[in-house]
Specification:
It comes from Lentilactobacillus diolivorans. About 70% of the residues lie in helices and about 5% in strands. It has about 350 residues and is mainly alpha-helical. The protein has one domain. A hairpin with a 4-residue loop joins strand 1 and strand 2. The longest helix has about 30 residues. It is globular and about 55 Å long.
Length: about 350
């Protein structure tokens, strides 16, 4: 496969991260709020599986150095920065601030305020590791599909578990098994998705189904809540409870396919000067994911309460800061390299 970036994937990432920011900026938890939460996190787990490969010759250290450790370093650097920023802006006590570093290590649902979205990195890293183990040691494709379904069914079969006496599980480990389902789906069906995104005979019905379930949710005939961090999942139709697993298996995937197809045709029909800025946003989703909640909270405290305005500012500011962080990191790396010897 060519190393050239696939434009529609970057655009889909940009759409996904804007949906995440908009969902966090919204104060009214109506139909649109629920709709965004159906797919804006699953889409990143699906795309996370697109380019995964089995580990060759058990080179797990190479995998950790390339895929896990850089994210882990960014997690603690950005987390520490935001903890200190929160201390001074929110006027928190030093005892609260220092204990927050313990919470950063524990992760998951213990993280709130500026770091409330950091659970995603915990779950993403765990899902990357679990998925890589499965595709490395479970060679049969059908067996991999079975593992994905078992993971989803078991992880959604209960509402809450305790870790010893603690209320929350470290790093939201149980949520990672839901993310595993989506990441394995992305890994197993990436080549099929590349064909589907241009097939209007599939995408148009998916788009119509998306519009229909959105309308049914708005009319209170359909009720689907899917909040991964808190593991709050409920599903009913005409107020009759329905299997949560069946909703999770189909609704996020159908909507993600529509987003992928929209991104594909956007890149096909739009000029490059329109595509490139959006593609750049898609390439900085991690930085935007880390920083946007702090910016939204600061805007709230400054008196801004419009979700659209907050979304625009949060995306732009966190994008600029993310670019700056990437530049500084590249400079540090280049300064550590020894000059080539003759």
């Amino acid at each position: 496969m060519s190393k050239k970036r696939i434009e529609w994937i970057d655009v889909a990432k940009a759409i996904g991260i804007v949906a995440v920011v908009f969902g966090h900026a919204m104060t009214r938890h109506g139909t649109m709020f629920h709709f965004l939460y159906w797919w804006h996190m699953p889409i990143f787990f699906i795309m996370g599986g697109f380019f995964l490969k089995p580990i060759i010759n058990n080179n797990w250290w190479g995998f950790l150095k390339k895929r896990i450790i850089p994210l882990l370093v960014s997690y603690f650097i950005c987390g520490s920065f935001l903890i200190l920023l929160s201390h001074f802006i929110r006027g928190e006590s030093w005892s609260y601030t220092l204990f927050y570093f313990v919470r950063l290590a524990y992760g998951g649902r213990t993280l709130n305020n500026y770091l409330s979205v950091f659970w995603y990195i915990n779950v993403y890293l765990l899902a990357l590791l679990f998925t890589s183990i499965i595709i490395t040691y479970v060679k049969n494709r059908e067996a991999q599909i079975i593992v994905a379904f078992i993971s989803l069914i078991v992880s959604t079969s209960y509402k809450h578990i305790y870790f010893f006496q603690w209320k929350y599980v470290p790093w939201d480990v149980d949520v990672a098994f839901i993310a595993l389902f989506f990441m394995l789906f992305g890994y197993l069906y990436f080549h099929k998705i590349q064909q589907i995104v241009s097939d209007l005979w599939i995408i148009v019905p998916c788009a119509l189904i998306t519009l229909w379930i959105f309308w049914e949710q708005h009319m209170d005939r359909f009720n689907f809540g899917f909040f991964l961090k808190s593991k709050i999942i409920h599903a009913s139709y005409h107020h009759i409870p329905i299997s949560r697993v069946s909703y999770i298996m189909f609704i996020p995937i159908i909507i993600c396919l529509v987003v992928f197809s929209f991104s594909y045709y956007f890149c096909k029909l739009m000029p490059q000067f329109v595509i490139k800025p959006i593609q750049l946003v898609g390439q900085q989703t991690l930085g935007i994911m880390f920083l946007h909640k702090a910016i939204i909270d600061i805007l709230d405290e400054a008196g801004y309460d419009g979700a659209i305005v907050e979304t625009i500012f949060a995306v732009l500011i966190s994008f600029i800061l993310s670019i700056g962080y990437a530049y500084i990191k590249s400079k540090i790396k280049s300064s550590k390299r020894w000059p080539a010897t003759k």
